[in-house]
Amino acid sequence: MVSPVQVIADTDRCIGAGQCVLTAGHLFDQDEDGIVQLLTGAVDTEGDVALARQAEHLCPAAALKIQPVAGYVAGNDATQGQRGA
User: Fold this and answer.
1) Residue 1's closest CA among 85, 81, 61?
2) Would you say 4 and 48 are in contact if contact means Cβ atoms under 8 Å apart?
3) 65 pairs with which residues across the strands?
4) What is the pTM of this model?
């Protein structure tokens, strides 16, 4: 199980390159000026965490930050064991 991460976008730094959208269009979008918009705040699947980190790495303006979800303790998830129910 992967630890969820929070995606933070600094819209003041964004230059509209669109690498985030090209990398993970289901996590990121751009407004009419090309500035990044988050489609989700927290990412909790292994594949999406990897894509979010790749988008962070590819952003030429360093406008994305990926950090652990505050207060999350692995193995202490209230929904653990309820998936697929």
Assistant:
1) 81
2) no
3) 8
4) 0.81
CA atoms of 18 and 35, how far apart (whole Å): 8
pLDDT tens digit sequence for 9-39: 999 999 999 999 999 999 999 999 999 999 9
Token pair of 42 as six digits: 């927290």
For β-strands 42-43 and 28-30, DSSP reports them as: unpaired
Question: Which residues fall within 8 angstroms of residue 50, CB to CB, at 6 or more apart?
Answer: none
Q: φ and ψ at 9, to 5 degrees?
A: -115, 125
pLDDT one-digit tens code per residue, 34-81: 999 999 989 999 999 999 999 999 999 999 999 999 877 766 555 444
Alpha carbon distance 31, 79 (integer Å):
34
User: What is 36-82 written as a DSSP string?
Assistant: EEES-SEE-SHHHHHHHHHHHHH-TT--EEEEEPTT--TT--TTTT-
- Please state the separation of Cα 68 from the chain's center in Å: 11
